């Protein structure tokens, strides 16, 4: 028999409001500080306020997620071997597969750099799901396209996305919305400028180096009272 307290209600009914209040208080407590990784890989801890803050969620910059360490090691290794800027390879991988080595597109493109079967065959790829083989072949192909278009990065990216034949047919970047979006996304992650016909990184916009990323985290109180934890310099 269930014991009742006043007006025939079970005793535990009167504890429900207190229990609900305790749960919401605990959730609010753990949600006061949110983690945010920006496009350069810098780790931020910010007060969970404002339009970006959502209770209980890890916030990430809109450009994508942080590079998995094992994938980053492969990118760095291949970039050294092929003498290609690792940040460019990293940007292409981010847009192509979001660093997922098992990614497959509706057209049959595979792996980190979304190799088409014929491209994989040309570059001797035996396992397109292997990060090293995939990034190696994709980087070699990208390097080939950069040489073909005299280091014009937009044309090289257009050819990587839509194929060299399409670029030749249109005499430049094809008027495809998907290709234009693709180029814009890569350049957003790899800002460039033209210098004597060559595409080079904008020094002021270069991603933070791994050594700088390991800088100690400091606490900053903003003007609105929010607390910010960052590893950026003063």
What does this entry look like structurally?
The chain folds into two domains: 11-65 and 210-230, no CATH class; 69-201, Lysozyme (Orthogonal Bundle). 42% of the residues lie in helices and 12% in strands. It contains nine helices and seven strands, in the order αβββαααααααββαββ. It has helices at 16-30, 69-82, 86-97, 117-122, 131-148, 153-162, 164-170, 177-189, 210-213, and strands at 33-37, 43-47, 59-60, 192-195, 198-201, 218-221, 227-230. The chain has a five-stranded mixed beta sheet, with no helix packed on it. Strands 4-5 form a two-stranded antiparallel sheet. Helix 3 packs across helix 8 (177-189), helix 5 packs across helix 6 and helix 6 packs across helix 8 (177-189). The model is unreliable at 26-32, 36-40, 46-64, 194-200 and 202-215 (pLDDT under 50).
């Amino acid at each position: 028999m269930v014991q009742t307290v006043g007006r025939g209600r079970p005793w535990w009914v009167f504890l429900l409001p207190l229990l609900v209040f305790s749960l919401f208080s605990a959730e609010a407590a753990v949600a006061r500080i949110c983690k945010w990784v920006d496009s350069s890989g810098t780790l931020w801890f910010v007060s969970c306020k404002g339009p970006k803050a959502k209770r209980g969620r890890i916030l990430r910059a809109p450009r994508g997620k942080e590079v998995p360490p094992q994938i980053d090691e492969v990118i760095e290794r291949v970039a050294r071997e092929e003498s290609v800027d690792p940040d460019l390879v990293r940007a292409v991988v981010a847009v192509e597969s979001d660093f997922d080595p098992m990614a497959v597109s509706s057209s049959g493109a595979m792996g980190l750099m979304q190799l088409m079967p014929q491209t994989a065959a040309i570059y001797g790829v035996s396992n397109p799901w292997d990060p090293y083989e995939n990034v190696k072949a994709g980087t070699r192909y990208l390097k080939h396209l950069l040489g073909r278009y005299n280091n014009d990065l937009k044309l090289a990216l257009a050819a990587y996305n839509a194929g060299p034949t399409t670029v030749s047919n249109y005499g430049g970047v094809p008027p495809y919305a998907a290709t234009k979006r693709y180029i814009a996304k890569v350049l957003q992650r790899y800002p460039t400028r033209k210098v004597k016909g060559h595409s080079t990184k904008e020094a002021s916009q270069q991603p933070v180096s791994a050594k700088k990323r390991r800088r100690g985290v400091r606490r900053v109180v903003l003007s609105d009272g929010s607390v910010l934890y960052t590893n950026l310099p003063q």
